[in-house]
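hey so i finally got around to running the thing on that chain from the lab meeting. sorry it took forever, my laptop kept dying and i had to restart like 3 times. anyway pasting the input first so we r on the same page abt which one it is
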Amino acid sequence: MSKDKKDFLEVEINPQVEGGVYINQALIVHNMKEFIFDLGLALPEGKIRVQSRLITNPIDAKAIMLALRDNIAKYEEKFGEIKLPVQPAPHKGSSQVH
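ok and heres what got predicted. didnt touch it at all, straight out
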């Protein structure tokens, strides 16, 4: 079966967000109904300035994780392994990604 236009979603990016924001830290917390991703920028004074907050349900959070895992695998296949630096301790009650 060949793929045609009906197999893909059309993506429209809001002009206010199309430039994106740079982040190098992610703090993730959850409760029974939702996951909260605080995406931020590490500042020299040892603080993190949250640039964007994403809130989603557990099903979509897992779908995002699987899509990210797939993209990282493809990236590493093409460019080599991504090596992580030693991570500082996470903030209380959250998981710090980086």
